[in-house]
Structures are given as structure tokens and as C-alpha cells.
Amino acid sequence: MFKSEAASWFRIYEMFKFESFHMYGIIGSALVIGIIVVWSIKRFKIKSFYGERILFYPKAKSFSRYIIGGIIFGLGWALAGACPGPMFTLAGAGYVSILIVIAASVLGTFLYGLLKDALPH
Fold it and tell me: What is the pTM of this model?
């Protein structure tokens, strides 16, 4: 991920300004591969390493939960300059300040776990 520059703040900035196809190509490739893998699992009834059937459960449809969640995720991405995958890549590359972002994201996930029953879904 580091060599492809997917963890580069400058590449992410270019993407949001629609100046470069680079990040859209990486994200689009991951999306296509994900679709093919999930389709294959469903079509060929592929089992887990433990021999159990892999099941996909439908999620409840709700416009507001995806809009609000997407806005929160996007704001975090914009403030940190990295989404969850590149955060760990940057830590491994020696960017120590990203550890603050990782700690904040873990804290946010923990707080959501505490508050999820009280939040509208």
C-alpha cells in the first residue's frame, strides 16, 4: 500500500480535487475484486478454513444511517489524511504521529460500542 502511494496524503488530496485517477483506480480495483470474491463465495458455496459455510446476512436499509456514517467517516478521513488501512501503513513506515490518529479511532470505536443502543439506527 505504501509503494502504490495509497497512503500518501498528496494522492488523497488529488483524488478529492478530481485531479488524478490514481486513487480511484485503486479503490475501483478493490471494489471489483470484492464483488467477484463475494459472488464466488455465494455461487460456489465456498467454505471457511474451518469447513463452515460462509453466510452473508442482509443489512437493514436506512438512508440516514449511511449518510450520517459516511459524513463522519469522510470528516475523519479528511482531518487525519488517511482512512483505516493507510493509517497502519503509515505507522509501519515510521510516521509516529499517526499513532495519535489510530488511538483516536480505537477510542471512537469503543465509544460507539458503549453508545450504540442509545443511537438511532
Answer: 0.66
Cβ–Cβ < 8 Å for 59, 39: no
Instruction: Give the helix/strand (H/E) hosting 7.
Output: none
Can you say whether the dihedral through the CA atoms of 61, 85, 76, 103 is positive or negative?
positive
Per domain, the residue ranges of the chain are 1-57, 59-121
CA 14/CA 81 separation, integer angstroms:
12
* Residues in a beta bridge with 53: 47
Grid coordinates representing 23 are: 486513487
- What is the rounded CA–CA span in Å between residue 107 and residue 84? 13
The residues, ordered by sequence, that sit 6+ positions from 20 with a Cβ below 8 Å of its Cβ are 11, 14
**22, 1 contact by CB (below 8 A):** no
Q: Are 54 and 48 in contact (CB under 8 A)?
A: yes
What confidence tens digit (pLDDT) does each residue in 7-45 have?
887 888 888 889 989 889 998 999 999 999 999 999 999
